[in-house]
Structure to design on (399 residues):
C-alpha cells in the first residue's frame, strides 16, 4: 500500500484550500470539514480538498493549527524525505559560508517553516547539533531526524543533543519528553562566532543555549564601538559585549536581571579578554538600571525578551518597547548610537518603528535611523509564510 492509502485523512471545507495552493504550511481547525479515523497527536496525515483531491501531507496536532505541512506532493515521510530536506538546509548554509568556516562554527541549520520543516529547530555549535521540537510530530520523529542529520552532516557533527522539555505543546501527552543526547555526548562546550569564543549551556541555557540570530547585528555593532562607552542591556551570554570590546570600546557594562546570565557573560568575556578591566557586569532589572544610571553611555544596546508572546499582549508590549526606548533615548550622550531590537513575532516592523518613534518624540531628541536590521540568512523567511519574520532592529543616531 502507498502512503496515501495508509495515512488518515483530513478533508477541508469548500474553498479552504486557497492558502495551501499558495504553499502556506498551516491548516487551521476552522478550515476543516472532517477528520477521518481519529489520528493521534503528531501522526502524519493527508489533507484533501472538498473535491477529494490530495493537497498536502503533514503532522497532525490538537489546537488551532491542526496540520503543519511537511510536503505538498504525494511523497512518503521516510528517511529519504528527511535526508532531502536536511540536505537543502545544509546547502543553504553552505552558500552563506557558515559551514567549514574556521572563524565561525555557530549557526542555525534548520529554522522551522523557513526550511520547510515546521516545528523543528536545529542549531549547530562546533561539533554539536542542538535539536528542538515545537510540535508533537517532530518529537515523535526525532530519532529518524537525528539519523538523517548524522548522514547529511557527516563528520561536521559528532553529537546531537535533543532539548524539547519546555518547547512542546502542553496538550500533547508525550512520552520521553526529557532532554538528552541522541548521539555522542561530548562535554565540550566552547563554540566560536566570527572569531570570538563563548561557552554554550545547551543543558540549561535558554533556547538552544545561545542567541544565534544576532550574529550579523553584533558584527555591525563592532564597527561602531571604537572609543565608546557601551551599555549592553539584556546581555544574556554577553554576545554584544565581547564584540564591543574587540571593536575598541572604552568601557562595556553588561546588564541582565538573571544572575546566571551575568555569570555566563563574565565567563565569556574572560574567555576572549582575560583580565581586561574595561568590562563590568550587573545583575539588575533593566528599568531600574536605566532609571539610576547617569549619562555616561554613548552606545546602548536594548535586546529585551519578547514582550508579546501572542496577539492579545500586543498593546501592552508596544507600550513596553516605548517606555524602554524612551529611557535610553533620554540619557544617551549626544552623538550616541542606539541598537534597539524586538524579537516578538506578533510585533510587526511598522509597529516596532512606531513604538520607537513615540519614544523618540517623548525624549525630545533629534533621532535618525542608520540601519534597519533583521534576522540573518540562516533564519530564512519562507516567502509563503511571512509569520516567520520575527527579529526587528533599528540603529539610531541620537544628536
Ligand atoms: N542580547 C542577548 C539576548 C537577550 S535575551 C544576546 O545577544 O544573546 C533576553 C535577556 O533579557 C535574558 O537573558 C533575560 O534574563 C533578560 N531579562 C528579562 N527581563 C529582564 C529585565 N526586566 N531586566 C533585565 N534583564 C531582563
Amino acid at each position: 500500500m502507498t502512503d496515501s492509502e495508509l495515512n488518515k485523512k483530513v478533508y477541508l471545507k469548500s474553498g479552504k484550500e486557497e492558502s495551501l495552493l499558495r504553499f502556506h504550511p498551516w491548516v487551521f481547525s476552522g478550515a476543516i470539514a472532517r477528520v477521518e479515523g481519529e489520528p493521534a497527536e503528531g501522526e502524519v496525515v493527508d489533507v484533501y480538498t472538498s473535491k477529494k483531491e490530495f493537497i498536502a501531507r503533514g503532522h497532525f496536532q490538537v489546537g488551532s493549527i491542526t496540520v503543519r505541512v511537511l510536503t505538498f506532493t504525494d511523497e512518503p515521510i521516510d528517511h529519504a524525505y528527511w535526508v532531502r530536506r536536511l540536505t537543502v538546509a545544509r546547502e543553504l548554509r553552505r552558500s552563506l559560508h557558515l559551514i567549514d568556516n574556521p572563524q565561525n562554527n555557530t549557526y542555525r541549520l534548520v529554522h522551522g517553516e523557513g526550511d520547510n520543516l515546521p516545528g523543528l529547530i536545529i542549531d549547530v555549535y562546533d561539533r554539536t547539533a542542538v535539536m528542538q521540537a515545537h510540535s508533537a510530530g517532530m518529537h515523535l520523529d526525532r530519532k529518524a531526524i537525528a539519523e538523517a542529520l548524522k548522514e547529511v552532516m557527516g563528520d561536521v557533527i559528532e553529537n546531537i543533543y535533543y532539548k524539547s522539555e519546555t518547547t512542546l505543546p502542553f496538550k500533547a501527552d508525550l512520552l520521553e519528553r526529557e532532554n538528552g543526547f541522541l548521539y555522542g555526548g561530548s562535554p565540550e562546550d566552547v563554540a566560536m562566532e566570527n572569531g570570538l569564543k563563548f561557552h554554550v549551556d545547551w543543558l540549561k541555557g535558554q533556547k538552544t543555549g545561545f542567541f544565534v540570530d544576532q550574529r550579523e547585528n553584533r558584527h555591525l555593532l563592532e564597527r561602531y564601538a571604537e572609543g565608546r562607552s557601551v551599555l549592553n542591556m539584556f546581555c544574556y551570554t554577553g554576545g554584544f559585549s565581547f564584540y564591543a570590546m574587540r571593536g575598541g570600546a572604552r568601557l562595556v557594562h553588561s546588564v541582565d536581571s538573571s544572575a546566571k546570565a551575568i555569570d555566563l557573560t563574565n565567563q565569556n568575556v574572560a574567555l576572549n579578554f582575560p583580565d581586561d578591566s574595561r568590562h563590568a557586569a550587573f545583575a539588575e532589572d533593566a528599568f531600574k538600571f536605566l532609571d539610576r544610571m547617569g549619562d555616561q553611555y554613548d552606545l546602548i544596546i536594548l535586546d529585551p525578551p519578547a514582550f508579546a508572546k501572542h496577539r492579545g499582549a500586543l498593546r501592552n508590549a508596544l507600550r513596553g518597547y516605548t517606555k524602554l526606548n524612551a529611557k535610553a533615548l533620554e540619557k544617551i550622550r549626544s552623538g550616541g548610537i542606539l541598537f534597539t531590537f524586538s524579537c516578538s513575532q506578533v510585533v510587526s516592523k511598522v509597529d516596532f518603528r512606531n513604538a520607537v518613534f513615540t519614544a523618540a518624540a517623548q525624549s525630545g531628541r533629534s533621532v535618525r535611523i542608520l540601519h534597519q536590521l533583521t534576522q540573518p540568512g540562516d533564519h530564512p523567511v519562507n516567502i509563503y509564510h511571512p509569520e516567520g519574520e520575527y527579529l526587528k532592529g533599528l540603529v539610531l543616531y541620537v544628536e
The chain has a mean pLDDT of 94.
